[in-house]
Amino acid sequence: MAKKQIRVRCWVEIDGDRFFGPGPAELLRHIEVEGSLSGAAKKMRMSYKKAWDIIEKLNSGSRNKFVQTFKGGNRGGRAEVTPHGKRVVARYQALTDKLNRVLDSNEGLIKLI
Amino acid sequence: MAKKQIRVRCWVEIDGDRFFGPGPAELLRHIEVEGSLSGAAKKMRMSYKKAWDIIEKLNSGSRNKFVQTFKGGNRGGRAEVTPHGKRVVARYQALTDKLNRVLDSNEGLIKLI
């Protein structure tokens, strides 16, 4: 029996450009746990450069920084998600949960297909 | 002032494979209006081959056909969206509308970013 599933994704665009979505949210969650960009990048099987580019875009695109980096140490030093970054991740997660609850109450589409 | 917007997309997967989503829904809507695959493909700036592949996948992946094609005529003949196809599009559209209403009531994320 084939497994049918409805999935949803949401993201924030600034001037039509993807700014925040599932990728950056996951990266921020990993930075919170790992305490560094290199550790978070590793967990996501992503290059350090790519992780850095994502954070650079987040930090420069909003009024508040999402991640605070600290120089020194090996492999680029420590990184911390700012209170602003944590608030955005929490709000984004809450919205995603809400959207998923809408899907759960719409099994009709699955049954139809 | 930068224009910030939350966007959402939903789709149906069968065994982890994308089966139905915004692309097929739009193609079916165009087929309904145009009455042919070639006309619908043109409206979507998509090759006839690509449109055919999408419909072939829909028609073979579900218990019921989404599109009925009629041989003959020039450029591949007529095509009609079946009652089943129309029901799926309507249900998908209703779900998308519902998800967008959830976004509208969640302006908090936008204001935060």
Describe this structure in words.
Two copies of one chain form a homodimer. Chain A has 113 residues and is of the alpha+beta class. Helix content of chain A is 55%, strand content 19%. Chain A is built from five helices and four strands; from the N terminus they run ββαααββαα. Chain A has a two-stranded antiparallel sheet. In chain A, strands 3-4 form a two-stranded antiparallel ribbon. In chain A, strand 1 and strand 2 form a beta hairpin. The longest helix of chain A is centred in the C-terminal third of the chain and has 22 residues. Chain A is elongated. The model of chain A has no long low-confidence stretch (mean pLDDT 92). Chains A and B meet through strand 1, helix 4 and helix 5 of A and strand 1, helix 4 and helix 5 of B.
Computed over alpha carbons, the radius of gyration of chain A is 17 Å
Structural class of chain A: alpha+beta
- In N-to-C order, the SSE pattern of chain A is EEHHHEEHH
Spatial shape of chain A: elongated
Largest interface (CB within 8 Å) is between:
A-B, 34 and 34 residues
Oligomerization category of the chains in this entry: homodimer
pLDDT < 50 stretches of chain A: none
Main sheet strand line-up of chain A? 1-2
Share of helix of chain A, binned: 40-55%
| Largest pleated sheet of chain A | 2 strands, antiparallel
